[in-house]
Amino acid sequence: MTINPGMLLFCILDSCIAFFFVYFITRSKFGGVKKTLARILASILATLVFIVYFAVLIWFNTAHRTVSQAAQNVVYAAPIVLSILMTVLTLLSQPPKKEETTEETEESEEEAETTAADETPVS
């Protein structure tokens, strides 16, 4: 069994993407960065996903496979597409930046100018 070195690098990269995707989703689901149990569970589950996904990708590149080319393309692209979609979802779900602070600073500057004009020294 031989595999093209470029395909092997792609398998490793794609499996790493799947690992990080599962790790961050699992960690956030079970309590975030501060909980040790969440990090342990996320590490174990992500490692299992990496191993299984890497094995499936290597199996796709053997001579005796029974999976169609379309199914292989879906499996190849799944972690990449999911990571892009999760990044977009994360960016879109962030709360908008407050623009009230700029309005408050403009109002305080106007009040300071008015106060400075009212406090002209009398000689």
What Rg is obtained from the alpha carbons, in whole angstroms?
27 Å
Uncertain segments: none
Q: Which range does the strand content fall in?
A: under 5%
What is the string of SSEs from the N terminus onward? HHHH
Q: Mean pLDDT, nearest integer?
A: 80
Oligomeric category? single chain
Instruction: Categorize the overall geometry.
Output: elongated
Distance between the termini: 99 Å
Helix percent reads over 70%
Distinct helical segment count? 4
Q: What structural category characterises the helix and strand content?
A: mainly alpha
By DSSP, the count of extended strands is 0
In short:
With 123 residues, the chain is mostly helical. 76% of the residues lie in helices and 0% in strands. Helix 1 runs antiparallel to helix 2.
How would you portray this structure in words?
The chain has 123 residues and is mainly alpha-helical. The protein is 76% helix and 0% strand. It is built from four helices and no strands. α1 packs across α3 (69-92). It is elongated, with a radius of gyration of 27 Å. The model has no long low-confidence stretch (mean pLDDT 80).
